[in-house]
Design goal:
16 strands; 18 helices
Amino acid sequence: MAAIPVTPQPRPADPSVDHLVQQIVAGPDASATCSADLAAGPWEIDTRPGYGPGASMGDVIPTGAPRQGELPAEYREADDTELDARIRAAKQTLGDRVVILGHFYQREEVVTHADYVGDSFQLANAALEHPDAEAIVFCGVHFMAETADLLSRPEQAVILPNLAAGCSMADMADIDQVEECWEQLEEVYGDMTAVDADGRVPVIPVTYMNSSAAIKGFVGRHGGIVCTSSNARTVLEWAFERGRRVLFFPDQHLGRNTAKAMGVPLDRMPMWNPNRPLGGSDEKTLTDARVILWHGFCSVHRRFTVDQIDNARAEHADVRVIVHPECPMAVVDAADEAGSTDYIRKAIEAADEPTTFAIGTEINLVQRLAAEHPQHTIFCLDPVVCPCSTMYRIHPGYLAWTLEGLVAGTVENRITVPADVADPARVALERMLAAKPPAA
């Protein structure tokens, strides 16, 4: 699964969510946004605690989460045209010394400068295609930059333009909580390395790609594996071959939706709340469990509802509803299809006839797809414009600052994973790379 090399294409519609937000805030506009603060530069809220305006603004951020230092005034005060020109000039000067990776959920003003666009796993692989680049500028969030550092060469610098671009879902499973969970499960299951008559251990830990390097390292140390939204089923099959049950984190919805589609009963998928003894369950429930789901979620995808799908069907008789598997189970069940961001993109590209699509995923991708495919009617299920809080922290001002720093010989915001974490984390990633889903 490769990231997409970017070839600029003419677009008949404006793909910029930032432009839409500015119009809404300036008013009057028929649309609505979840926070007027989205119209401001991220540097205006970098000093505040929290994830910032957008879908995760109500989530509790961990103490000690990375904070971004002050962006120099010349980048804060530059307009879009100046920043665009400075980024292009720096890229031209740096040439093959730098590769810029842009996640699907990034704002258009950043994606336009990316050498590759894709999901977190695709972009990590794209980094591998440039072993001679001195720097990899990852326009995404913190765990993605960590993964790129795990997979790139030691001498390559992985840069996150804004250190405050974290991920609330990834933060919902910290390493101390997961270690404590494992210890409590040991009290229930006994020796976690003991195999039964079928050669299976009591539990295999599986972490979603959207997790910290420390969590990936934990999984690697305990015989587990990483998954993506594209290969979650294949990874669960791998895990069930090796363990009687799976501990799945941090996203409960991806775990539940995937396991349910595989035939695992809901009553055998208890939730683990890290703030309660035995996760809020009892020994019998945990003994009978097939999948133990961590109490985590994506705040972007939790916004989608069955009512939104019903409204889309009422307004568009032939609408095709596609949602991301991070959405709640009821939403996935009500949709026509569920799949990763890459699945959604490919489904739209493959539609031969003009089609109306209602999409349940992050608004930046939906708006971009609508601009790229004017033959279709494409809209976001959520009528309120509410992008990913942390993806939106990456702004052209930060990109210009990091690139011009590289031109001047300065590496800003380098992300590095310590060796004691990196080594087992790579083991978990290598297991994932070997667990390939069947060809479509």
